[in-house]
Amino acid sequence: MKIAAIADIHGNYQALITAIHHIECWKPDRVLVLGDIINRGPRSLDCLHLIQEKVKTDDWMVIKGNHEGYVLNFTDPNFPLDGLEFEFRKIIYWTFQAFNENEIQSVAEMPEKLELVLQDNQLIRGLHASTAGDRVGIYPDSSGSDLENLVDTKADVFLIGHTHQPFIMKFRGTLVINAGSVGLSFDGDKRATYAQITLGKKGWAGEIIRIDYDLQAAVGDYEQSGFIPDGGPLAELVLAELKLGWPQLSHWFRQYESRVLGGDISLDHAVAEYLQNPSIEQIRTDIPMLYPL
Ligand SMILES: [Fe+2]
Question: Domain residues for 69?
Answer without folding.
Answer: 2-213
